[in-house]
Design goal:
TIM Barrel, two-stranded antiparallel ribbon, 8-stranded parallel beta barrel, 13 strands, alpha/beta, 36% helix, 15% strand, globular
């Protein structure tokens, strides 16, 4: 990796992902904002948000979790791709991102046992948050495979350059792989290989729906951080299987809604680059590009992760929300001017959990007030 004109040559060197050239190694990891309408469509502020992200110097922007089915939405105001009526809105998001010369990727998801609407479903009836999801039948599993595939086809039709399957956070794909949440004794449960069957079938169906030249990435859960949950001993087997199945990249994450708020996990997540070691383990198991995320707070840290071959790309989420000029400052060697995502702050997560739209506590007071006022005005418009 060489880029002699930059203080961070590895960060600003190109890479090919799924046959598409990325201008640098910096991507926006998907980050739920709550800026969409209650019907899951983009409003003006959401479009402006993604227009800013697309123009800030990132090579690729992965648009936040987008539902493949109405009963699979995970949050109020979650984007959707459940039928053809959503293609036009998705197209406006893709165009907003690409107007700034970034590649546009859309993450698709079914929230499973964490679904916000309808009857939550899961591989097994394992209680969560005081309720018990319904166990899926085999025909229902096969119908969900088709739902992912048709949603991915809509993403492609909308003009996105790639699609990403959300296999993290304990959502539906991840819940099938986990020994903690999948207690089935049929073809979709039991052994690690049978627990991997559903996400692998989804990957196959999605690739068939979008065509072999359209890259399909995977948000990859490396560790649940739960004593009886998924760990690297099994997740790395899935990584290898996803590569064999044609995944274009793996974007590494860890934790679920049942582990995020454990004291030891909350303390771990305050550390810069706290998931880089997991990305390193995944990268050693596959040859496709691996994205490392998890409080990649500074360009120096991100450069080191690349130079030490822990990952091939960097995923920025909360840090790029806190400072949309992060990439420009990194390119120009102005690291001392970065607006930090505060280690003692979890405001964005608290807002999401409370069903609110995200307003970053690191923004200047005037910007926070302006965003709140604009969102309020937008939602008071007829039809919002």
């Amino acid at each position: 990796m060489t880029n002699a004109g930059s203080p961070y040559p590895s960060l600003f060197s190109p890479i090919e992902v799924g046959g598409i050239k990325l201008a640098n190694r910096l991507t926006m990891a998907p980050l739920y904002t709550g800026y969409a309408t209650p019907e899951g469509r983009p409003g003006p502020f959401l479009l402006d948000h993604y227009r800013e992200m697309g123009a800030c110097g990132l090579a690729m922007v992965v648009v936040e979790s987008t539902a493949v089915a109405g009963a699979g939405i995970g949050s109020f105001r979650m984007l959707r791709a459940q039928d053809d009526s959503f293609v036009e809105g998705l197209g406006r998001i893709a165009a907003a991102v690409k107007a700034g010369c970034a590649l546009a990727c859309c993450q698709i998801n079914h929230a499973g046992r964490f679904a916000f609407a309808g009857e939550p479903v899961a591989p097994s009836a394992v209680p969560v948050s005081g309720s018990v999801p319904r166990e899926l039948s085999t025909p229902e599993i096969q119908e969900l495979v088709r739902a992912y595939a048709t949603a991915a086809a809509r993403v492609k039709q909308a003009g996105f350059d790639m699609v990403e399957l959300h296999g993290g956070t304990g959502y539906l794909l991840a819940s099938f792989v986990s020994p903690r949440t999948n207690r089935r004794d049929d073809a979709y449960g039991g052994s690690p290989d049978r627990r991997m069957r559903f996400p692998l079938e989804v990957l196959e169906a999605v690739r068939r729906a979008v065509g072999g030249t359209f890259p399909v990435g995977y948000r990859f859960l490396a560790h649940e951080w739960l004593p009886d949950g998924l760990g690297p001993d099994e997740s790395l087997r899935l990584a290898a299987a996803l590569e064999k199945g044609g995944a274009a990249y793996l974007s590494v994450t860890a934790g679920t809604y049942e582990s995020f708020f454990l004291p030891e996990v909350m303390e771990l997540s305050k550390r810069e680059g706290y998931m880089a070691n997991l990305a390193r383990q995944v990268r050693q198991a596959v040859s496709i590009p691996v994205i490392a995320a998890g409080r990649m707070a500074t360009p120096a840290l991100a450069e080191r992760v690349l130079d030490e071959r822990q990952a091939d790309l960097i995923g920025l989420a909360r840090v790029i929300l806190a400072d949309p000029d992060w990439v420009r400052k990194a390119r120009e060697g102005r690291e001392s001017e970065l607006i930090a995502c505060r280690q003692d702050c979890d405001a964005c997560m608290s807002q999401v959990m409370g069903g609110k739209s995200v307003v970053c506590a690191s923004w200047p007071a005037g910007k926070r007030a302006g965003v709140k006022e604009r969102l309020k005005a937008e939602r008071e418009q007829p039809g919002s």
